[in-house]
Amino acid sequence: MFGLWTGGKEAAVSQAAYYGLFALQHRGQQAAGIAVTDGETMDYHKGKGLLSDVFAQNTLPKGIGALAHVLYSGGKVRTANAQPFVVQYQYGTIAVASNGRLTNASKLREELAKDGAVFSTGVDAELMALLIAKANGRGLEGSIQYMAERLEGAYAAAIMTKDALIAVRDPYGLRPLAIGRTEDGCYVIASENCAFDAVGAVFERDVKPGEIVRIDNGGLHSVGVYPAKRSALCVFEFVYFARVDSAIDGLSVYEARFQAGKRLARVLPVEADLVCGVPDSALAAAIGYAEESKIHYGDGLAKNRYVGRTFIQPDQSQRVRSVHMKLNALQSNVKGKRVVLVDDSIVRGTTSANLVEMLRAAGAKEVHMRISSPIVRFGCPYGIDTYEQSQLIANKMSEEAFRKQIGADTLAFLGLEALREACGAANLDFCEGCFSGEYPTEL
Fold this sequence. Notes:
The chain is an alpha+beta fold.
């Protein structure tokens, strides 16, 4: 998500939203949308595909506020499911965008349907909009508070009206949400603060777990904070999902991955000639591994920058094709060498065998695979697409059987306690459910 509020000055907010959202394209590649308000009316455009495809021939008018979103979904996507979700109700038009997944969505839909609500999509943003509309007479902030009290699970959400941009983060802080400000006084919100540089904004602070923040022509106001008993930021943000130049809740993503790589080097030491990482999310961990092990760091895989992230592809066949399109071994670097290949995680196991095979074909003498996170054993109910446990390689075979299947000489994973240590500088505790099976909310 990316949102911007000028404070009442008309500006090319859709262009700024485009640039900010472009910096967040790694978080979703299946659909994109932008909504704009001029203080009286709201216009929007959205569609399937990358941001550059959706807005290749479409422009939006100037305005005082914008809300933008890129979609990451584990299944097929309809254009209607693209966000922001824009709806008219008794008190005007609102645009809603959300990151995460509600665990009580089915229950809420059933309750709203009994009251006569009609659903046109399956996205959480529509559910949020209908809950706001249901809370008649409470005012905008009261309606959003009513909505937040009904939601369970993970969400970082933004709601834009003709008068304000409001940011909401779930009580556990499972999904990240940051606030920034430009030199000319515009406030911006984003799922990651790496988006602020794209619009010339500087990071101010993170939205607190359970906090509702209102941004209007009078500035920024914290409407209220309703946190859970403990925070639970998704640790997979630091393992894979977030961009390496972001910082979330006080912790640099690069530093977390670098420290994880250093600790990984102590797990199963091996004599080797070269340490390389799988671009891009494992490079920082590979550098940390090389520094700790005193083994030379270099590139072993070249990346085609025009191919998206394989993990967030919606189906298995697309993920396999994307690996071959995205990566190729550097024969001049790996031929005749004992290679330590560092990757950030193994979830389905779809790419590991291909990567080892690439290095072997390029002449690598040995391939030792090292994973800078624990084994993913459990599904994620909060919006990361590992929900089906039957898909997880850890539930299909043993670690040794998997090593043999992918053809690696050795295989080792970082332990959960070591990952906690690597992320220890964060201001929040973590959800580690995909590794431990323990979740912060009831499912």
